[in-house]
Amino acid sequence: MSTADFLLLPLSAEEREHIATLAAHGETARSACIDALKYVQSRHGWVNDAQLAAIAALLGMSAAELDSVATFYNLIFRKPVGKHVIFLCDSVSCWIMGRERVAAQLQHRLGISPGETTQDGDYTLLPIVCLGHCDHAPAMLIDETLYGDVDAAQLDTIFGPRA
Ligand code: FES
Fold this sequence. Notes:
CATH topology of the largest domain: Glutaredoxin
Strand order of the largest sheet: 2-1-3-4
Oligomer: single chain
Distance between the termini: 56 Å
CATH architecture of the largest domain: 3-Layer(aba) Sandwich
Strand content: 5-15%
Bound molecules: FE2/S2 (inorganic) cluster
Order of helices and strands: HHHHHEHHEEEH
Number of helices: 8
Structural class: alpha+beta
């Protein structure tokens, strides 16, 4: 087995084929890098170092180049996360409109600090820059669902009444 083949082992044959298809349809192979990262993440929950190196090899990039894309793009996880990821906006409109109050309520309810995952593995809490929902600050994204005007009552609706 060649070094190049060995590098690709962290991805299944199906995953390699899918990424090759993405690369073939882009203007350049590397233009498919975010879609490839998102695809691998959709199958594994996050993208580990070996998977990232394999994706980079398929796209003709260095692992360092691809890692810089992955770490710049907030929605790619380079560490394991919970089943659901809560992104609480950390930008100015949300700060003005009570983001810290919501953060405290979330942290109290879930028993975690930003960057942590609940013990049952259900939720990871992360800060994020402006979600583009400033007119409904404070804003929060859970997986693909955007919430605005977040307050304690809405947290009760989402997570169930507090114990
Ligand atoms: S500042 Fe929070 S959504 Fe824009």
